[in-house]
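Give me C-alpha cells for this 205-residue protein.
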Amino acid sequence: MLTLSLNIGMASKYLIIDGKNMIATKENPYLMLSTQKIDIRVFSECLSKIYTHRNSSSFFLKLGSQKLEAQQLEIFLDDLINERKPSIPTPLFGMPILVISNGIDHKPLVSMKLLQIRDICDLLAIDVSSLANDETIVRLENELKNEEFYRKDFYAIYKPAKKLCIVSGLRKTVISTEQNINQILRNFPDIISKYDKTAVQESLM
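Here you go.
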C-alpha cells in the first residue's frame, strides 16, 4: 500500500476532465511506466498491447473486436495529428490509461491530447523528468509487480490494478493504492486550482 505525492502536474492541460477544479482523475487504469523518454513508436506499441489485452475476453471477441498492431496504431495517430481520414476504424479502448514516464516526446504528447479530447481514450500522462532523484516509477513497479503483463527494454505495462487511484492537478499529482479519489481530494486540498485562463494556455499541436 502506498501514497505518492508529486510536486508536478499532468503533462498537458488538455487532459483536464474537471474544469472547475482543474484536475484529472483516474481509477484502476491500465498503467504504462517508462524509465526513459517515450517516442511515438513506444507509445503506439503500448496502446497496441493494452488494446489487445482489453479485448482478449470472450465478451469483446463476440463483438468482433480486432487485434491492432503497433504499426497500425502509429499510422492512425499520424492520421489523427495531420487531420487525414483514418487508415483504420477508430479504436475505442474502454478503460482509462495512465502513462508515467521520464520524458515524453512531442508527437506522442500531441497524440495523447487528441485521443483524450476526441473521446477515443480516457488518458492521463505524468512526465516525471523534471523531478530530481524521483523514485515514483521504482516504487510503483514494486507495488504493482503482480499486475505486470508486458515488459520491454525500459518500459512495462500493467493491467488495471484494484484500488489504484490518481488525482492530478496543474502543479501536483497524488497516486495511491490506499486512498480513493474523494480521500485524496480531502487529504490534499492544494491539488485543486482555481480556473485561470493564463495558466491553461497551451497549443494543441
